[in-house]
């Protein structure tokens, strides 16, 4: 079953429109497909940014202790050691 689409009218600066049209023509894709991909990419980046913020907040709540820092340093030293 095909996905339903909703038409949206937006305004963008002329230079951005020209840049999008140039990419669209070269790629042979429709304007709708190009904008959909851009929006999917942007939404994915928003989700990544949220994940990083949550990770950082957790780290601030419980930073690494000496034990974790020591283990990480030992791992780095062992990884460069020629065996």
Gap between N and C termini: 59 Å
Taken from the alpha-carbon principal axes, the silhouette is elongated
**Helix coverage percent of residues?**
over 70%
**Class by SSE composition:** mainly alpha
Helix/strand order, N-terminal first: HHH
Mean residue pLDDT: 85
**How large is the radius of gyration?**
23 Å
Strand count, sense and barrel status of the largest sheet are:
none
Oligomer: single chain
Integer count of domains: 1
Q: What are its keywords?
A:
72% helix; 3 helices; 83 residues; mainly alpha
Structure, described:
The protein has helices at 14-27, 31-61, 66-80. It has one domain. The model has no long low-confidence stretch (mean pLDDT 85). The radius of gyration is 23 Å and the shape is elongated. It contains three helices and no strands. With 83 residues, the chain is mostly helical.
Concise structural overview:
The protein has helices spanning 14-27, 31-61, 66-80.
Q: What's the structural blueprint in terms of helices and strands?
A:
Elements: H1 14-27, H2 31-61, H3 66-80
